[in-house]
Amino acid sequence: MPNDGRPLEAIASEFQIGLLDMLEANPGTDPYLPKVGKTLIIPSQMLLPATKRDGIIVNLAALSLYYFPKGSNKVMVYPIGIGQLGANTPKMVTTVSQLIKNPTWTPTPNIRKRYAADGVILPAVFPAGPDNPMGLYALRLSYGNGQYLIHGTNANFGIGLRVSSGCIRLRPEDIQALFYSIPVGTWVQVINEPIKFSKEPDGSYDIEVHQPLSKCESDDPQTMPLVYSNEFKAFL
Q1: Is 198 a domain residue?
Q2: What single DSSP character describes residue 102?
């Protein structure tokens, strides 16, 4: 850990990793004041979700977004923030309905009520600009009445955590790259698969397991049971 006063989030951002992944790989590390000279493990390897690899896949359990450009064998992977308890990001299959540059943000009544309970009074509308919590770019999803977006942020904390009001949050440089890479109509899957798996060309098997997402305050992710998908049962 360099002697430059940076929090763990800044190190995670440098390596395009979510904060929770960094904390899981480095248990006991102070996220705000990591010990100078401490050796950090950078969790840079991952498995891809076992689902149709087209367009955008968001795996809530892995706190990751995967984009598969058409006509390419590449994948772009970004850490994300998702909905907090009580404002969960839903699973869905949908499309990108709108690309929005310099979005405004109109907090819903429920969001305003939740913030007010913490003593924060939100304005009726946040104008576009660097102080907007949605950042400078947003992708509106067709799901529901269009209330869910993939967007940026004006904060330097929260990627790789459950912090949003239900939308999917990316770091500013990541949402900018995604914004200019995809067209309207791009297919989007939002899944919740804590177990990822793969059979390698040499015949070996790899399994990657994330803590399941808690559904209420009393849930302990350390002891919550894992639910096996049909694909994983077949893999076993």
Answers
A1: no
A2: S
Q: Would you say residue 12 has pLDDT above 70? A: yes
Burial class (CB in 10 A: 0-12, 13-18, 19+), 119: exposed
CATH number for position 63: 2.40.440.10
pTM of the full structure? 0.87
Four-CA torsion 218, 223, 227, 233, nearest 10 degrees? 180
Contact 50, 207 (CB under 8 A): no
Catalytic site residues?
151, 167
Can you give the length of the chain in residues?
A: 236
Rounded distance between C-alpha atoms, residue 220 and residue 222, angstroms:
5
159-217 pLDDT tens trace: 989 989 899 999 999 999 999 999 999 999 999 999 999 988 898 989 998 888 888 77
Distance CA 228, CA 61 (A): 13
pLDDT per residue as tens digits for the range 40-62: 999 888 899 989 899 999 999 99
Q: Would you call 111 helix, strand, or coil by DSSP?
A: helix
The total number of structural domains that make up the chain = 1
In a domain, 50, yes or no: no
Strands 187-191 and 55-59: parallel
Q: In whole angstroms, what is the distance from residue 40 CA to residue 34 CA?
A: 10
Q: How far apart are CA 95 and CA 148, in angstroms?
A: 11
